[in-house]
Write a structure and sequence with these properties.
Length: about 325
């Protein structure tokens, strides 16, 4: 008989948090979900609304509005709280205000006796994941940011659309900062074992400049969505559910998350988006891709930009 009951604590029930809760319920990933937010009425309403959908869910999930004390028995605490990116703002513009918010959140969670895995989704996600690691004192393997999981999904979607292939059969990564300095790893991108360059050479209609535009659309996707609807939340919510599932089901899945580098890719003391093997213990291993010279330079630049922006706040 199974004795352990999986519990996820969600902190922040705004656009991203509530979308995550909805996707989590529909995919039957956890047995318990507790919603925590300063806006008590909104979160209580979300809990009621989600519970009313249980007759249509794949299986029963216990959902309630709670507080930080509920984090003690949680396997995962997912942080979606914080200030949102506004039109014209970069993710790095949010560093100072969200770091202050996170310090208080993490102190409350750890005071409750939490000893699980943190998932961080709030921007700038790489810097805030580093902050959670520092504030919590947990091992680096158990503090994970959403990193470039959404950028990679956007990349695969647009490549699949361009080559008219199911996006789930596209294998390609975006790494680096979840932001303006991220980069595509073209040297390891393939569809069905054939490199993207081989696909480009297949038909005269395919052009190199189209690939460049695909990456630009990936990098700038959030700006376009924010301009049109004010925020992005469905894609990242589904990415967070995918990550939650990989942890709770001990999948050993490779996902591009914000992970701590300690010599990998020639970098140290930084959280940044890279492929990593994720399981019940958190990050099992970093997958270190052999980058070409141009990719190495761009990745180093991404690291340097993050370090420059995080040092005034965290040091």
């Amino acid at each position: 008989m199974k004795n352990h009951v999986n519990r996820v604590a969600l902190i922040g029930t705004g656009f991203v948090g509530s979308s995550y809760a909805f996707a989590l319920l529909n995919q039957d990933v956890t047995e318990e979900l507790v919603l925590i937010d300063l806006n008590k009425e909104k979160s209580e309403g979300d809990a009621m609304d989600l519970n009313h959908g249980l007759p249509f869910a794949p299986s029963r999930t216990k959902i309630w509005f709670g507080d930080y004390s509920d984090c003690k028995d949680s396997d995962i605490v997912v942080i979606c709280a914080g200030a949102n990116q506004k039109p014209g703002e970069t993710r790095l513009d949010l560093v100072e205000k969200n770091t202050r918010i996170f310090k208080g959140i993490v102190e409350h969670v750890m005071k409750a006796g939490f000893d699980g895995i943190f998932l961080v989704a709030t921007n700038p996600v790489d810097i805030l994941t580093y902050a959670v690691w520092k504030f919590s004192g947990l091992p680096k393997e158990r503090v994970i940011g959403s990193g470039t999981i959404l950028d990679t999904a956007r990349f695969r979607f647009l490549l699949g659309e361009y080559f008219d292939v199911d996006t789930r059969n596209v294998h390609a990564y975006i790494i680096g900062e979840h932001g303006d300095t991220e980069l595509p790893v073209w040297s390891h991108a393939d569809i069905a074992g054939k490199t993207i360059q081989e696909w480009i050479n297949k038909k005269p209609d395919y052009k190199q400049e189209d690939l460049d535009n695909i990456f630009i659309n990936v990098r700038d996707a959030a700006y376009h969505i924010i301009q049109r609807k004010g925020a992005t939340y469905y894609g990242i919510a589904m990415g967070l559910v995918r990550l939650t599932k990989a942890i709770l089901q001990n999948e050993n899945s490779v996902l591009t998350v914000s992970a701590y580098l300690d010599g990998e890719y020639g970098q140290k003391d930084i959280y940044i988006g890279v492929p990593a093997i994720v399981n019940r213990s958190g990050i099992r291993d970093i997958v270190e891709l052999q980058l070409n010279e141009e990719e190495t330079q761009k990745f180093t630049n991404s690291v340097n930009v993050l370090k420059k922006n995080m040092s005034p706040v965290l040091n």
